[in-house]
Amino acid sequence: MSELPTYTEKDIKTLSRMYAEYWPVAEIAKKLGKTERAITTKIHRLGLPQRDSIIIRLINFHGREILKWGSDRESILMALEAKGAAAKQATIALRNQRQVAALDYLLYEVAQGHDRNMAIRRARARGATMPQIGRAVGISKQAVAVILRG
Questions:
Q1: Residues contacting 7, CB < 8 A, separation 6+
Q2: 3-state secondary structure the chain
Q3: Domain segments of the chain: what residues?
Q4: Could you tell me which of 93, 148, 92 has the C-alpha nearest to residue 120?
Q5: Is the pLDDT of residue 138 over 60?
Q6: 41-84 confidence digits (pLDDT tens)
């Protein structure tokens, strides 16, 4: 069996910093002289939070310089909107975020015992699509359409 890679305190700090700055795992591995698999395993063992996939896509599209506006999704998307750079992408990402928020609130309302049909109508008004609503509450999009009409 092969020997497990060892990490110094400096290695762990470097790994944590680069991971938080959204550097690709391949780049972190290259910098630390480890395999990508070893880096991925260490990330999980350290309990580092999962990175935001939208930020990763935006970095891939616009480059690392977008991180100068902040490291959270909201500040990056707001800066992209303000700059007008890839306004369509920023708008889509914000819409997706609003849809997720609408679905989260729908599930919360249903769990709290509120009227399901009213919660469905509110989720639709907040921007969630009929298929998303149907999947969230376990009904077809056709049943969602009937509820919205009624």
A1: 15, 32, 42
A2: CCCCCCCCHHHHHHHHHHHHCCCCHHHHHHHHCCCHHHHHHHHHHHCCCCCCHHHHHHHHHHCHHHHHHCCCHHHHHHHHHHHCCCHHHHHHHHHHHHHHHHHHHHHHHHHCCCCHHHHHHHHHHCCCCHHHHHHHHCCCHHHHHHHHHC
A3: 1-51, 88-149
A4: 148
A5: yes
A6: 999 999 998 887 778 877 877 788 778 877 777 787 777 777 66
Residues 77 and 88 sit within 8 Å (Cβ to Cβ): no
**Per-residue pLDDT reduced to its tens digit, 84-105:** 655 666 667 777 788 888 888 8
Architecture category of domain 1-51 in CATH: Orthogonal Bundle (1.10)
Q: Report the distance separating Cα 98 and Cα 124, nearest Å.
A: 11
Residue 77 CA to residue 97 CA, distance in Å, equals 11
Residue 129 identity: T
